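Follow-up to my post from last week.
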Amino acid sequence: MVQSFLRVLLATLASVLVLSGPVPATPAKEAPWLPDAAAYRLTLFLGNLAPLPWDDIKTAWTEPYRGSEFSVGALAWLDRESEIEPAGLLNAMMREDRQAVFAEATRLIALRIEEELDRALAAEESAMAQQAVRTARELYRAFEDGIAAADPEAARRIGLAWLELNSSTGFSGVLGAGSTSADRKTMEAARTVISSYLAENYLLDSFAPRRALSALPETAVLSGRAFEVPPSLPPGSDIFDQDPLPLLVLNFEEQGIDETDLPLVAFGDMLFDSAQIFGSPARDLGITCSTCHNRSDINQRLFVPGASHQPGAIDVDGAFFNPIFNDRRDDPLDIPSLRGLRFTGPYGRDGRFASLRDFTRNVIVNEFGGDEPTPFMLDALVAYMLEFDFLPNSMLTTDGRLTDAAPEVARRGEEIFNQPFAGLGDRSCASCHVPDANFLDRQAHDIGSVAPAYEGARAGALDTPTLLGTAYTAPYFHDGSLPTLAAVVDWFDETKALGLTEEDRASLTAYLETVGAADEPYEAFDTENTAFRLAFAELTTFASTLDTLLPRRDAEHILLLTDTVAADLSADASTMSNLAARPEVYALAERLAAVGAAVRADDWAAAEASWTAFKSEAAAIEERAF
Amino acid sequence: MPVQLTRRTILTLVGAGAVSLATPLAAQDTALRLAFIPQENPEKLLGDIEAITGWLASEIGVPVEGFVTIDHAAAVEALRSGDADISFMGALPFVLAEAEIGAVPLLSEVYRDAPNYTGRIFVRRDSGIGALADLRGRDIAFADPISESGYLYPLAEFVEAGLVKGPGAAEEFFGRVFFAGGYQQAMQAMAEGLVDAAGASQYADLLLTPQQQAEVTWIAESAPIPSHLVIARPGLDAALRDRFVDAMLRLNEPEHRNKLRYLYGPDGYVRADGAAYDGVRDMARRYGLLE
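User reply:
Got it. Predicted complex:
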């Protein structure tokens, strides 16, 4: 079959490969998973969580994974595409027997590969044989990272077998032109390589008990040796940036101060985008502060199966990121915005941290399993985050009153907002969301939005959130349970018996939408002012802190910087629209990596030389960096 | 509306030698049938087809149906048999279909401001391979034996360089020649070190991970290859054909650009220039695919 140029373009948008191995903060998009392979990978991932989310595992087999291009789930897909009966798997799931589910699911995928290989060998038409080989190969992907981790030689042997198999299926050409016939002998030999490995490792009657579920081959597990499969996120995960990208408003920048003149802030900016400050798996997956708090705002699309109950929410004290910090409670939180952070303390949804520094350390060490940050790192991160400003909103004065630019309906809402209600204890909305205090009161209140965790619990008080910028941060409440600001108004009206009329609710909603609005909420890109140009400017700014760190011979923080920025610069080049300039960006990244290598070798003169070269080369290619 | 086909149905239909689907149309000038070439996931394509055919029907004023064929060969067969009026098509299958059944080029796809692209020979940067001659006795993966950018044009670079005597003689120069099944598979095989080089579209490295992209480079680039196109069967009512072309060109307008994603995601379309495919015709003759 002729490969379509267009297919490449399409695949470029939604493409490629298992997320695995050490990666910088630029995640790779994945090729779509086949439904059965996706369900298997989700089973492995969810099966390692504690408590084990059995409902999610069942859903993984019955419904399409989140974002799947297939309209059916794995079981329906199997029913349609396969002769294999999943009864054993269903039974194991019903019994909630983790080991049995693992064994049945593993066998199922191995059987599916065998089934497709049988079809390939039996096909009379080369197009059919190729289709079957492609499907078998996509199913094999479910085991691939385990084999690569435990047995690289086998991974290579099997990889070549897939090439052999595909090459020997024959090709139908077009109208007879370019057709070749199948080479059965080669096909069978290649198939034997694949099938014998499956028989020995995945198509087994029983498997050794698994402490951690993974795609490691059985022979590797039985060998007793420890193999590390690089962490990966399961199908349905989404850790990509938002589109459109929120506008970042930094106080110093608005005043015309250059970040390169603020090395502590610039280093903090780098740390905010560095996965190196976290432990595995977050570090290996390229997860950073900005993955969730994208551009100081929120990432509404972030989703990790088993840790997110809906997009934009995450349970940071669950089993996945740092098992020692697992609170064994399924309590994902809607990601809060960090805009105006210096005015929004105390921190945490329940305001449990008075200090931003303490909160930040908790995120690094406890939530994401990182090493203890140095005082310099904490100082830098805090210095940077304190620069986050609210989005300018010309419909609002600095003391929180509506300006002439605000719509009339919002003025009526403003009156309601300031009006005391008996249902609010003779207080008004404005009592807590104080307009001249950035619409918050820096206190925690129990408004009844948290279901008691046990009888008599007094644990429902949450820190009053600001209303500024909230037009772009849906959904609302700590658990993201309310989809719109209108729903928030309805919730208060109903639960607090405010007695609002329909017109009142509309006016109050309009007021909230006006207060939560912004003149420019998103970054504006065009053909040359691209997301990559923005990233390039940021990364070269981060690197500028070397002007401060190199003279101080501060190896620890230099290496943190070079490891982060060199990898990110290189990875971000994949997003360039100016493809011709990509090699220059790769070379620039290598310059920065060379700074790190020289520092590791204690060769400070070489480090200085590479840094000097970096600066001049960065300036030279700046115009082409889009 | 797309014709709902399972993978097996597609195979069965093609295996029977023809794509004959759904109710025959009452009259040529009152409906259009579009053949689509499958992607990795034919099911997604069905959803895309539903979206684009619905829009085309409203623009053209006649019912528009779409269906997925298993490959270019089946699409050409559908044009020949009259089961399809119009098909999306690669440049090489087009020139073959033109010669064999008189297929008519209507539109060429535009990507990155050009209705053409190139094929390249990619290698790993750490491989020490800097020139085509360095690949003597080494292994290479191509996409497919009748892919323009994934075989014919990249291989022609070796012929131009005097390293390969001609089509059919590649095995004498290389160690092993594989057809991996697609750009992505060929590139992945190269990036993972299963083979030393890959011949694929100039954009094929974008199919690798960002980390892999930084690890690969290219050592040769082919002459420009005219991009994929939209072709019609001969005998399709001229007025209907024109209305279809006009509608497709409206996809270039800002308010309709978002629909391009239903059509393999080009940046737009231009009217096809048949002469632009002379190079492909020459290439097909050199490879013995065209008389």
